[in-house]
Description:
four-stranded mixed β-sheet
Amino acid sequence: MINQLSNHRMPAEWEAQQAIILSWPHNKETWPSQLDGVILTYLKIIKEIAEHQQVWLNVNSEQIKIEVQRLLTLYCIKQSNVHLLVIPTYDVWARDYGPVYIVQDSNRIITDWEFNSWGGKYSPQYFLDSDVPQLIALHMEEKLIQTDFILEGGSIDVNGSGTLITTKSCLLNPNRHSVVNSNTIEEKLKCYLGIKKVLWLDAALVGDDTDGHIDNLVRFVDTSTVVCVQEKNSKDENYESLRQLFLDLKSMTDQDGIPLKVIPLQMPKKVMFDGDRLPASYGNFLITNRKVLVPTYQSPKEDRDAICVLQSLFPERQVVGIDCVDLVYGLGSIHCISQQVPLV
């Protein structure tokens, strides 16, 4: 099947979408005391998206499906745009285990990558989520190509024109592949995703259990512009690595040799839980057809500034802040729980 791939590419997130994929939250190990708050956060996210495009929402059973329908009605959510799929999941991180879409001519294809629970850090039950791309392909009658390579969707970001950005700390980590090098990975990304150029970065937020997913650090906002999270406080433990990240990006170019334009996006105030720092970042925003959903962290000035920066970069979309303090207790935010489905 892979030999049939040519003239294919992974679209940028700002390109036209049919749907956003989410998985309904239920895991009390992830949110021992925050699950009710996380459910409310989900309802806000679903309501914002469903106003203008589809949501494909994985639920674990017919019984949960009935309960979710009740909540959608209670919160006046446009149910005609919410498709409930009975696809069991262990947790919600659809960005990492969900389908990664490519387009080929007028066709949409799922690339199904291996998922090993972020380097085997967590319960083997997380491996059950690796079935989600195949199950979505069955439910939605999508074409699918299986790969033999471990890749989480949050570890990559693309500009839709051939450039992919990622981190060495994640993709070159031996907990993903025991024997691997950057050339091997680039070959896989070019083969399956139609990538022409890979930009490698060195950075990871304190408290990030993913070994440095790029969607907490750097995001494309157009084909040659990225936002890069920055820390103002020089005594903060993230300060130096994020400063160097910004400098490294300033020396990089896209697939056509055009220098990247790098826009700073300040970090929120620290979000802590049981003495540990959580990976709260404004970089974990989600681009939809008409909106940009930005996680906020009850830091009024910082939240407002982040929304303002992103609104200036997406003037034709409404930038909406959504309180994600409960959500980030699970070590992820809006982008981590979602995956876009391109429109073809």
